[in-house]
Amino acid sequence: MTNQTPCEPAIQDAIEWSLLNGFALKTSPESATHCAFSLAPTLIDETRFSHLRQSVPVLAKLIHAVSEDHEFLREAMMPIAGADPFFTNLLNLHKHIHFGQQKALRQPMLFMRTDFMDDAEVGPGVIEFNGIAAGMGPFGQRVHELHRYMQQQRPAAFQEWSPVDNLHLIDNPAIELLSEGVAATARQVREESGETGQPVFLMVVQADEDNVYDQHLLEQGLQHLGIRTVRRTFRELHDQLATGENARLLLEGIGGVDVVYLRAGYQYSDFVAHDLKEARCCQALSQTRTFMEQHNVAINATVSQQLATSKRIQMLLTSMTAQELTRFGLTLSEASAAKEFLGIMLPVDENSAEWFADKPSKNWVLKNQGEGGGHCIFGDHILPKLKSLSSEDYQAWSLMRRLHPAHRERPALLVRRGEAIKVDDLISEIGLFTIHFNGKPMTRHNGDSSCDSSGYAGYLIRSKPATESEGGVHSGMGAADSLAVR
After folding, report:
1. Where are the beta strands (DSSP E) in 292-443?
2. Fewer C-beta neighbours within 10 Å, C or N terminus of the chain?
3. Domain boundaries, the chain
């Protein structure tokens, strides 16, 4: 990876287009920087992309069924209760919501991003399921639009950094599809409540976060469809929620809420309130999350959805046969299709370090239960970590067979904070979005009303140098990218 001075007018044009169109990260209350991006798209085989796009609704069907099998979730997650404090808290919430005296009336809206890598030898495999704070879909659309703009307005620069000549961009109407799915859900909940007026969408956010423009782009898409959007932190909601008639969730100053979408809640800091006196950390704001689930409102992510998309559950699903997966309502054909992508994940125990000692470390990654970047251990760091784990820690960790995609044949150009970087070994991670409400798909396949309803809702590509371990656009060394075919 080598640096290149960002002197070309095309690069500056791309940066200005990004800022003009909200493809940016907030840097202070009054300023922002463009999101990191590639100057030209990544190539994918058209048949392979079509296969992935048709398969993610099956994976979403599986995760939805797992998330609503509360006995399975409780038994499956119980072994990590002592090893991971955050998931211990989630399990306590799950027990209170689904095994307590008050019935859980929430309606699950599974707004999920399934992340894949396309291994050069074995093909695409699931890296992880993102069931909470599954963002960046709007940025996926924006970078696709940026590449289309560059192709039309700066064809020489676009061609110089394209993976092949004469490529065709794959459309990515993620904002429209995600908005369509959420809006249809909100209207259905409002209609069932007997209320009239604008449906209300509540986004639960982190205080002072920088990734706000991706969120606002989704809000704008919903506003264009007649949905009222509101943003609150967990701390604000602690004082502003109440119960209305027919178990409606009421928000102070707004009224009945139809959809709750969590862009927070995947880490302890989201539930910390220093001004509240609590018997234990995060108790009050965790109870706010429980309170929401006791009402007739569509929610993503429910606590059970968050548990169902954990690394622990992913590992257990990979260990099941296709026949065993049919217990979650899949046909044998669907279960076989899901197994194709689930890869290899192994539990960690007292023998793992000895077993791993003579294995090629480049072929594995060690994962804990954390969400977002910084929770994976690679290469020569794996064995020392395995040796350091106590017996109480084992259940919170798993070894996953690492996927090695082929890197782009031609050099690529990434642009981050105004700096253009030439990359000779660019690889990509493919995230596909789906939206389901109570298990039913809420969007049309590729936005085409002539196709069967599928729940597919666009894609997000994150590309990075093969030498970098953390590929997140927000928290790693990745850059937003788009897809093209020959």
Report:
1. 298-300, 345-347, 364-367, 376-378, 398-401, 412-416, 419-423, 426-437, 440-441
2. C
3. 2-485
